[in-house]
Amino acid sequence: MTDMADFGVYIHWPFCQKKCPYCDFNSHVRETVDQARYGQAIITELETMAERFHLANRPVKSVFFGGGTPSLMLPEITGEICGAIKRLFSVTDDIEITLEANPTSVEAEKLAAFRDHGINRLSLGIQSLNDRHLSFLGRQHSANEALDALAKAQQVFDRVSIDFIYALPDQTTADWLAELADILTLGCDHLSLYQLTLEPGTAFTSMAKRGLLEIPSDELSLEMFKETQAHCKAAGFHAYEISNHAKAGQMSRHNLIYWQADDWIGAGPGAVGRIWSHHMPNSENDHETNYGRIETRCRKHPDGWLDDVTKTGSGIAEENQETPHAYAIEAVMMGLRLADGINIAAIEGKAGARHTWLDTDAVARYCQQGLLNEEAGILKLTEHGKTIMNTLIGEILIL
Amino acid sequence: MVPISNIRNFSIIAHIDHGKSTLADRLIQVCGGLTDREMKEQVLDNMELERERGITIKAQTVRLSYTAKDGQEYILNLMDTPGHVDFAYEVSRSLAACEGSLLVVDASQGVEAQTLANVYHAIDVNHEIVPVLNKIDLPAAEPDRVRTQIEDVIGLDASDAIEASAKSNIGIEDVLEALVNRLPPPQGDPDAPLKAMLVDSWYDPYLGVMTLVRVIDGVLKKGMKVRMMATNASHTVERVGIFGPKPTSIDALGPGEMGFINASIKTVSDAKIGDTITDDRRPAEVALPGFKPSVSVVFCGLFPLDAGEFTDLREALEKLSLNDASFSFEAETSAALGFGFRCGFLGLLHMEIIRERLFREFNLELIATAPSVVYHIHKTDGEMVSLHNPADMPDVTRISHIEEPWIEATIMTPDEFLGAVLTLCTERRGEQINLTYAGNRAMVVYKLPLNEVVFDFYDRLKSVTKGYASFDYHITGYRTGELVKVSILVNSDPVDALAMIVNKEQAETRGRAICGRLKDLIPRQMFKIALQAAIGGKVIARETVGALRKDVTAKCYGGDITRKKKLLEKQKEGKKRMRQFGNVDIPQSAFLEALKMGDN
């Protein structure tokens, strides 16, 4: 039996007031949502998962309300879900409970209520401090409105993270660095700074295909990336992940669960989970000997998901036992995003000898060429390695 | 038994698409060789590839029985010959087995270069030639113009050319009557020692090696022991038959007759085209003239895309060679491409056919290196070596001079493209021999070095003439050339599979062009890649493929894992289509694409 991994709970709230043109998450625009019914369904699904995967009293390190736009939820609903989590699992005082929020004035008014209903960390999607860029990104708030919302959030919550998108069409490095300088004065301890990516199925991607949108060249976005790292570092932030920067002790515990390939369950439409369990998918009986990592994926469409939960107690559409090899691939692919890198022996403990999943010759070669760094069993990307990590991990993994 | 005076042996000469196969089908149908139900389009082209390309690769015969207007019954043996210049020798043997030919010309298109070559072969073997103007019912048909063209270009009397349309069943009787009345019957002595020409041979998975023969003298009977005069091997004849067009067993083939035999022959290489078959106990004194062993003219390296398929490739080549003795192969090791085979072919089309068959019939994905001709390297010590792989070129200090094969090419083109054709030929070091007009078509004859033609000349010709030109060539001999080996270096290491031999004057231009193309063909990788072209130690061109600048996913959380994993798998899949050379991945297609000269 392997050491118990950190465990988190992800809740997906799939509704938005408007779909942003860059976003490829499972989101749906609805006039009205029967919040009580959805909230109850999420609780039902959590109960089912707790039972099915034998999770009673498992210590929960983090809860994350993502979306969609979970700040559109009624605070009481988040409270009920938090209550269910406390009831079903074991919860300590230092639990991190994050809510993603849009910085509109309406949502800002609800922040104190969210705090009173269990939320203790806010992730605010400001995205830009430039109104022209905000409108390009399809956001429903102005820069000033966002700054007001941030000020309120900072009064209410000890921990506030803010999200920005850069490397936008026509944005120069100087433009962005000026904006970043302002961001660094906002008094937040956690920053998520994403380069704009054209994700399949988004409005931006179809615009780009029609030649209506052009993202900055690799050269330019690389320059912006490097400058971003340098400026954040100078301001006392640690680039603990490719796009995430935190002051000491302020890393997102929840997201670390994903990057460290730990355990989490995901409830709500389209949510995915990964959990080490004795549960055997597609079988009536669970066996001690069948210890493995299960991957779950809930039905994406909110109505279909709701139907399934109502009928069967769960909206899980896919449930598979991951092979040890697939686990290793995930652990490397996600783990190398972290500045701390991966512990090869720890992955071996779960996935078997490294030569079955890692091309050690390639690793040695790329270490020598300055793309990777291996020290005391910890493998990390160098600064150069980070910038081309997709190609690089393709070269070192044995698929 | 039909007397020899009532036998007519003929072949059909035509350009692709001028209607040879349709006419053959129609003749078979009229003579009752097959019922309507059994007729499938183009009965004689057996191979899928033959049907698809409308070309004949192997010779075929069909025996027709025709009752002529004079009330007598005639045996008409139709010999369907390979239609391409690469198989010129096979064509000449097939023609030698007949006494006459139908020259089928599309009444709107006119004479093409390929037709011309084959007509000359027929004239060489003293054929009586009956011109047939096909597709006469098409609105664009210009029988008078084409008649004049046949007379001007070929020098053949076309005044009694038959106007026909095989497709619409016009003039078919006239064709059959002309065969009976205008072609001479074969001559032969049934009592003389057996002399039969081996016209073609192929491997039939059910019947073994099938040998197509034309009996000249004597009688070929089932059960007799025969001897191949060129190879001196003897075999027992197990079966004698004719194609009607279905194979049918008969007791014997007499003089003037065509048919097939099955004997105890293991592989087609034991049944050499052009060989003379005689009676082992009463052999003929002299063999039939004109036997030539087949010689490979064009070579290229074939390597399995997946190194694990080397054995499969060898087995496939062995199987194909059962059916085609005219291509050769031997194991080759390339530093860049691993284990493969150096294969020799009769010509460009032959090479293409074999490559395509390996892919279609054996499901093998291959990397083909650029084709090479055979150079004669005269060394300073007086030794001459035949070089068919640029990678094997000896050190320049040991070379006295190099000779390369030259061809005489005949190109026919609508005159509006003439300028472009002349430019192309000049670019390829061509020397003009002749330029004539027939109507609005020009015929140019050039001497060209084969190595300028072997690669993409035909593609370029098609491109500059919008597909209207026809092209034909034959090798005329060797000439000394100012030739150098250009090596291509990737990160300072020479890639053997990209080495080429070129004319010295063009070396720099070619080297630059190749580096330029490679730069576009090789995707950016983690480190920058230096590409160089060099003659010996002297670098004549260089390019750099810049390093990958940025390739990192900005956002990757729990919900993104599955998709990102799939992207990784796709990346790996793409890598499989590359050849690793040092640290550089070179796409398999680059080995051929890089050498194409393109429009510049």
Core attributes:
heterodimer; A: alpha/beta; TIM Barrel; 2 domains; nine-stranded mixed sheet; 16 helices; 17 strands; B: 600 residues; alpha+beta; Rossmann fold; Elongation Factor Tu (Ef-tu), domain 3; Alpha-Beta Plaits; 5 domains; 14 helices; 25% helix; 35% strand
Strands across the major sheet of chain B, in which order?
A: 2-3-1-4-5-6
Strand portion of chain B, in percent?
A: 35-45%
CATH superfamily of the largest domain in chain A: Aldolase class I
- In angstroms, what is the radius of gyration of chain B? 27 Å
Instruction: Report the uncertain regions of chain B.
Output: none
In helices, the fraction of residues of chain B equals: 25-40%
* Coarse shape of chain B: globular
Q: Unreliable segments of chain A (pLDDT under 50, ≥5 consecutive)?
A: none
- So how many helices of chain A? 16
Mean pLDDT across every amino acid position of chain A: 94
Write down the overall geometry of chain A. Answer: globular
Total helical elements of chain B: 14
Within CATH, the superfamily of the largest domain in chain B carries the name P-loop containing nucleotide triphosphate hydrolases
Name given to the CATH architecture of the largest domain in chain B: 3-Layer(aba) Sandwich
Question: Which structural category fits the helices and strands of chain B?
Answer: alpha+beta
The gyration radius over C-alpha positions of chain A equals 21 Å
Largest sheet, strands/sense/barrel of chain A: 9 strands, mixed
Number of strands of chain B: 33
Number of separate structural domains of chain A = 2
